[in-house]
Amino acid sequence: MKTKLLFVCLAALLAGVMTLHALHLDVLFWQNWKLNRQVMPEQAFNLGRYRADIDGLAVDGIDDDLSALTYNPESNTLFAVLNGRPLLIELSLEGELIRQILVEGVSDMEGFTHVAGDLYVVAEERTQRLILTRLADDQQTLDLSDAPSLTIGLDSGGNKGFEGLSWDDEGRRLLVVKERDPLRLLTVEGFVDALAGQRMNIAIRETGMADSPALFMNDLSSLTMHSPTGHMLLLSDESHMVVEYDASGEPVSLLGLWRGMSGLKQTVPQAEGLAVDDAGRVYVVSEPNLFYRFVPAE
């Protein structure tokens, strides 16, 4: 009797998982079809035409916890974080490890963005703290114990806090996403002036996108602002997609991260970081240590 009951429970669990999987795919395919039918703005990425030319490369020297991603146009390299042992890592545009920087004075790093020159911002997930720092080209350790910081402290904190961070150069503001419960997209103005010696006049606002039907994702794991076009890319780990939004907050195009979509041989397992380089190529990193690059199809 117990064996029969266990079998029934396992069958029900499997059916539930398969139903959830199908629902995710239905949403992704429906939104992809709908977006591809609309007229594409001239400056749009048009993510539907992007295909993976680096597909799930395991980053040598990294075992786990690969998260966040930002592009530095001055060094033409990418930076990511490891939130287990607190490390910043610099990567080539081909996913090769260039250096590791040990970070002290932080806990649970989850977001990282390049601002300009050697200026960056770090985000802690649980504390919802933003930290300003400078990082030299040859630096191997970084102590943030006394660095200028701003704690926002929304909701209950925990492991559903700040998940992604991006600098909007045109708007001179930080964009921050909270993972879920609830989803939030915040703008923070004035904070980066702290290292410039200016008087801080900080303004924190929540955009209307977080509760909008246009935001059809289950969670938010990263974002990147493309200042030249004013378009923003949002990454969802649970929904397995990257969505492009225009300056008015309307969805424009979609990049599917399921197996068989966007040239992928396997589904991206846990997408945690997103960046775009000067050539318009899209980069995604996924736990444990996987690197992806997407380029427009010829």
Structural class: mainly beta
- Average pLDDT: 85
CATH architecture: 6 Propeller
Percent in helix: 10-25%
**Weakly predicted, low-confidence segments:** 5-23
Summarize the helix and strand pattern as letters.
Answer: HEEEEEEEEEEEEEEEEEEEEE
Strand content: 35-45%
Count of helices? 1
Number of domains: 1
Name of the level-1 CATH class: Mainly Beta
The Cα radius of gyration reads 19 Å
DSSP E strands, number: 21
Q: What overall geometry do the principal axes of the alpha carbons give? A: globular
Please state how the strands of the largest beta sheet are arranged side by side: 2-3-4-5-9
Tell me what you see in this structure:
The protein has 298 residues and is mainly beta. The chain has a single domain (38-296), classed as TolB, C-terminal domain (Neuraminidase, 6 Propeller). The chain is built from 1 helix and 21 strands. The protein has one helix at residues 2-36, and strands spanning 50-58, 66-72, 77-82, 87-91, 97-104, 109-116, 119-124, 129-134, 141-143, 149-151, 162-168, 173-178, 184-189, 203-206, 222-226, 231-236, 241-245, 251-256, 271-276, 282-286, 290-296. The strands form 5 sheets. Strands 2-3-4-5-9 form a 5-stranded mixed sheet, with no helix packed on it. Strands 1-21-20-19 form a 4-stranded antiparallel sheet, with no helix packed on it.
